[in-house]
């Protein structure tokens, strides 16, 4: 083979090899481009509404046995509540009462609280008592001995044992703060606190009332409906009784910090809405959550105190509940104040406290 022919063959092979390289690179680039497009679509789907395959994954990974019956009033009525107070650590003392730090158990958790016991001669059957339930405070900011000092002082110096409990996840109480409106954790804490007071030797077990502020108003009202031996409940600036009122009036609390996605409470709340959707008054499940659907057999008394200028919880929550209570045989009173804001501060504070003490004395002190 002559030299020219060899040269042509080499050139031909080089050209063919180059063409194959171009085709290979083109196909590789096209394949990567499609893969990136598919990944981009998947990411967009996760950030927005899940597509069909993602929804199937969510449903397959969810606990299909979770019924959320523990949120319902029938469940809370059927459940047993049993607890007792632990050792008491003296904190302070004045001419009217002595304050102690103590705790009790609820769902196996250690729940702390500030207990005040009046001085003087107690009645033969024991002191009347109040389980005091705080409103929403960012759990990491809540302090047992600093929040609601003036409220507790006013009640304690008027002859009531006051047990201001730190709801689970607040202060040094164990557990996770699960929230009030879509969890029964706090209601269970309240009813176990009531039982703990009943088991003490200085409280009249038949004369224990509940006091709740804001979020605590929802908690004590649900507890009141769930356990029908509670004689009296006083609510200050409470919220969410019918659950429809939640969507109608909302809550404007700039201090609210929602639980992160990693928490158990957030997981369960997401699963609740995946299973039952948003609140629907015609849903058989949601009907069992609403305490105002179970008022027929309730015998105790309700007092509500609310400032008209409350910018956090609308006065319409109270007015709406008032219209419902008017259709029942439940003894109740509604006190509106022209000013005072969400905490019913002075000058309305003193009047609201006078009304609260008068109310509790009417129903918690034996004549």
Looking at this protein, list some descriptive labels.
367 residues, alpha/beta, Rossmann fold, 2 domains, 9-stranded mixed β-sheet, 11 helices, globular, disordered N terminus
What is the ordering of alpha helices and beta strands? HHHEEEEHEHEHEHHHEHEH
Mean pLDDT: 86
Q: What is the fold-level CATH name, i.e. the topology of the largest domain?
A: Rossmann fold
Strand order of the largest sheet: 1-2-3-5-4-6-7-8-9
Helix content: 25-40%
How would you name the oligomeric state of the polypeptide chains in this document? single chain
Q: Low-confidence parts, pLDDT < 50 over ≥5 residues?
A: 1-7, 9-16, 19-64
CATH superfamily heading of the largest domain: Alpha/Beta hydrolase fold, catalytic domain
Topology summary:
Blueprint lengths: L2 H45 L4 H10 L11 H6 L10 E5 L3 E10 L2 E10 L8 E7 L15 H8 L4 E5 L19 H14 L4 E11 L1 H12 L5 E5 L7 H6 L14 H13 L7 H4 L13 E7 L7 H11 L5 E7 L10 H17 L3
Parallel strand pairs: 4-5, 4-6, 6-7, 7-8, 8-9
Antiparallel strand pairs: 1-2, 2-3, 3-5
